[in-house]
Fold HD domain-containing protein.
Amino acid sequence: MLFVSYYITKIIVQGTPCTPDDPMSAESMDVQDKSWTPTKKTSVMKFLEKGSDVPSVISKALIQTILEQHALPWYSMHGISHWARVFENGCQLAQLTGAKIEVVQLFAVFHDSKCEHDARDFKHGQHGADYAATLRGTLFNLSDEDFDLLYTACAHHTDSLTQGDITVQTCWDADRLDLGRVGIRPNPNYLCTNAAKEADMISWANQRAIENFIPKWVHKKWGYSKKAAQKKRFLNGRGASRHAFPRRAWERGIN
């Protein structure tokens, strides 16, 4: 058990630690993430308690189209409950980092949209990015510049990276803050932005992940319910657990 605990601790968190030699090391990221610098007068927890009332770009038509083609059960490690928490994590972070909120929100629903197995689908990020390209212009709109950010964030979210545009970094942090769903507490050394590294932010997101928290708005705004999931056969099979992940999956930083 000690070996397992040590092993998981070593590989828990997505990403690679930055070093002063990196072109976007911790020092350079501090410059990018200018919008959030903790002070005695600020409190992440107070900010989080206020909630986020940022308008959503995710329409019911878009989410329903994605869900109809999603292979995993709603309660899986890469299912809609995870997407919703990543959505909220991202909205909170974007207000602090200055990331492009539309990109962050779309990342939440596309990054795992083509995941077909909770443990062994190493290319699902790339497939999700390609899928987003097929729906662009019909179910959502983004400029070429913003779509490039979305594509990059989705395609590389399992590649253990910490470098990139602040919007891409915010997307990755929103996802990594939900590692608690597989029994892992996010390590700030492997997060990208100052806002995500805050202890209160990690604790807030981690507790929700552990509880498999599903925001109430999911039922209304995304038109989603367990009954609808059953009708679409999203409840066939068992829910995934962290014990279902083989060692190789942990090593690859699946998220």
